[in-house]
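QA checklist item 7 of 12: single-chain prediction sanity check.
[x] sequence parsed
[x] length recorded as 169
[x] structure emitted
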Amino acid sequence: MSISLYAASVPVFKQMLGSLSDVLNKAEAHAKAKNIDPDALLQARLYPDMFPLIRQVQIAVDFAKGVSARLVGVEVPVYEDTERTFADLQALLTKVQAFIATIEPAQIDGQEGREIVTRPGTPKEKRFTGQSYLLTYGLPQFFFHVTTTYAILRHNGVEVGKRDFMGAF
């Protein structure tokens, strides 16, 4: 039995972006209830050399939209990464969810062999097939940043658990 490239991508991004939105809502409510400056959470890191929560969300979003767009063969939407608040992050998530919602299975299925080149013309250039790009690069990167966002919030006392991470499925 095979699984389609669409089934392994867009619905997964939709589910996890929804859960990311929900955990950010819980984080904002936590900050308000505990009288914590929201920036304490938004700028929190697991370790000094890691990106803060805001950047983790931005990168997760970049992978969701970038992988989806590249698999379809359209330009990746460009967002400026100027988010500074929970509301800004929610607006970003909404934009990306709206973009991903426009993608139909027929646009991605059959693109397993499409050549995808990341960072073309640079020393970090990598070439993938559509399938290997999704499965060995795009999804692992996406999940790393979603998971790190969750871990930052959990580490800082936001009451989130596995159900929150998983979202609606």
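[x] summary fact logged: The chain has one domain: 10-166.
[ ] second reviewer sign-off
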